[in-house]
Design goal:
Layout (H helix, E strand, L loop, with lengths): L12 E8 L1 H7 L10 E6 L6 E2 L3 E7 L2 E18 L2 E3 L1 E2 L5 E8 L4 H4 L3 E2 L9 E4 L1 H9 L5
Parallel strand pairs: 1-9
Antiparallel strand pairs: 1-2, 1-10, 2-8, 3-7, 4-5, 4-10, 5-6, 5-8
Length: 144
């Protein structure tokens, strides 16, 4: 178990690999809610800490260009990994299938991600974080 505050600021992001396709949702997504119009079922890469359902983040940015960012509230709605076992958190060090809510809407960089049937089908290309993590990755330290 790793608490979020124990992770270095520059590591505090969710790695969105791709959208989960219908095959993936049928095989692994039992118990996840059907995503609403502003939600997406996505594969997440290895997680930096134990992150509870309900955790909100402030922005999304591209893995290969952190300056390409969008301020959007992103909420962890639901999480699973073990073939239908829904968890109350994203566990540290695990790859998971999650439903994320984007407010006011899903940003294009997330909406345009490809679909995949398994973890590792796609390399993580969008990160979700708070502003201080994003600023640390772009300029080297968070703004005061």
């Amino acid at each position: 178990m790793r608490k979020e505050e124990d992770a270095p600021v520059q590591e505090r992001f969710l790695s969105v690999e791709c959208h989960a396709d219908g095959t993936a949702l049928a095989a692994f997504g039992q118990g996840l809610p059907q995503p609403a119009a502003n939600e997406a079922a996505v594969f997440l890469g290895y997680n930096y800490a134990d992150v509870p359902v309900g955790r909100r983040y402030a922005c999304c940015f591209r893995r290969d260009d952190a300056k390409d960012a969008e301020r959007v509230t992103t909420t962890v709605v639901a999480v699973t990994q073990q073939y239908g076992h829904v968890w109350d958190h994203i566990p540290h060090g695990w790859k998971t299938l999650a439903v994320l809510r984007f407010e006011p809407a899903i940003p294009a960089m997330v909406r345009d991600l490809p679909y995949g049937g398994l973890w590792f089908d796609r390399r993580a290309s969008v990160y979700v974080s708070d502003a201080d993590t994003w600023e640390t990755l772009v300029v080297g330290e968070p703004a005061l």
